[in-house]
Amino acid sequence: MAKVEDGHLPFVESAKPLHNSIPDHLAPNFEPAFLEYYNKYTAGRLATHQVPIEKFRADPAKYTITYGRDGVPSDGVTWSDLKCPVDGGEITVRVFEPAFSSTDKPRPVYINYHGGGWVFGGLVTDFDLCKRIVRELGCVVFDVDYRLSPEYKFPIPVNDSIAAFHWIRDTKAEEYGLDVSRIAIGGASAGGQLSAVIGHVCRDAGIPLVLQILAVPVTDLHVFTAEGPIRKDHPYASYNELADTQPLSLERMEWFHKQFLGSPRPDHLANEWKVSPILAPNFADLAPALILTADMDVLRDEGEAYAEKMKRAGCTVELVRFKGAPHTFMQLDAILECGKEFNRIALAALEKAFEL
């Protein structure tokens, strides 16, 4: 045991935090600002999946770090919370509008689905992003607060998200002056998975979408066994190369899989495309997609495989990989250049899709 002198342990240069530090072999590959941020605010703390879910639900702010987000002013934007009926209850959908625009001329629509592994997240997750889109493009934004696992396992988060889409399109167009011929959808991580599923649902129903934004999307939960661990024969190098990356490690993804689908996973969900949209039987005629992946993310390769499958089916796809980016780079747009670039690229894609 190290000798204590004057109440302090001697400094050991190679010492690492007990929990969730970034491995030495991966550290040089991250954007330097992320390393500084992560080591100062996150390394050494329990990650949210390492906290009993009851404790997290009781006090989410205690376990959530929000440093690094570029706060967006609220002037020029109004928002209100609506109640959307879903099977077995209702969920909240928050609508954001330009404060001074008229509903006389139909306005384009962006519908957002937050990330958080189907377990975490809510209306606070993309609050600034929603305001940014309204301020810069003058469209109407809806943010869907679907019910979360493990309390509400699959298919509830997916069904809530689909139901909210139809409810917005079918019942809110006149009230909010929506141009239903200019609807875009999008989300990050689990929100990307939900958006990808809705892209297929809309294609099957003949509902046009002008764009789907899939940021660091989960597209293939088939990589995990029914008991939870990853399959040895999975096809994605990023899971092998980045198993110990942060903040989304292989261990964390295995945990999300169990919370979302149950442990063991029911046999009938093994190849369910509404769980793993990359397994969908038909990729033809999907809406144009902007797919964004992060260099240092375990989900990198499945997101890019999804883009490739869309391209092979003749769909329009823009694929962008952000060098040195962690999984959560979009939410660190105050400190990471890749986070700022995400805002620029996503807004430009929406502007083009909306023909503004």
From TrEMBL:
GO terms for MF: hydrolase activity
Domain Alpha/beta hydrolase fold-3: 111-330
Ranges in coiled-coil conformation: none
SUPFAM superfamilies: alpha/beta-Hydrolases
Keywords: Hydrolase
Entry superkingdom: Eukaryota
Name of the protein described by the UniProt record: Alpha/beta hydrolase fold-3 domain-containing protein
Protein source organism: Exophiala oligosperma
